[in-house]
Description:
CATH class: Alpha Beta
Distance between the termini: 13 Å
Strand content: 5-15%
Number of helices: 7
Largest sheet: 2 strands, parallel
Oligomer: single chain
Order of helices and strands: HHEHHEHHEHE
Shape: globular
Structural class: mainly alpha
Number of domains: 1
CATH topology: Rossmann fold
CATH superfamily: 5'-nuclease
Strand order of the largest sheet: 1-2
Number of strands: 4
Amino acid sequence: xxxxxxxxxLNQRDRxxxxxxxxxxxxRQSLFTTWMPVTEAMYLLDFSPAAQSALLxxxxxxxxxxxxxxxxxxxxxxxLMAKYADLAMDFADATLVQVARRERLSEIxxxxxxxxxxxxxxxxxxxxxxxx
Length: 132
C-alpha cells in the first residue's frame, strides 16, 4: 500500500477518499507497506492529529502490516531507482517494488497508476493496481 491511498482513506476531504474507501472494503487480502510510505502519509496528514493517530492505530491492530527493509535490500533498491531514474522513482516507491519482488506480491494499492503501471516485478510482470 502506497502513501496516497492511506491519506485518502483517512481524509474525507481528499478527492480520492470515496474510491479508496470503496476499494478497501472490496479487498479481501492483507495490506502490506513499508515504513517509508507510512512516513510520507504521516507528513501529508500533519494537518490532522486524529488522522495520524488513526493511521498508527491501523498498524497497531494489524489492519496494515509493515514489511521491513533490510540492508540486503539496498542494492536492489538502488538498482530500481537507477533503472527508473527517468520517472524519478522515490525511495518509498522503490521499497514497495522491492518488497513486492522479495515477497512475491503482485498487487499494489496506489494512486500513482502511471509509475506503478511502468514498474515491473519478476520476469517483467506488471502490478495489478487498486483502486483501478
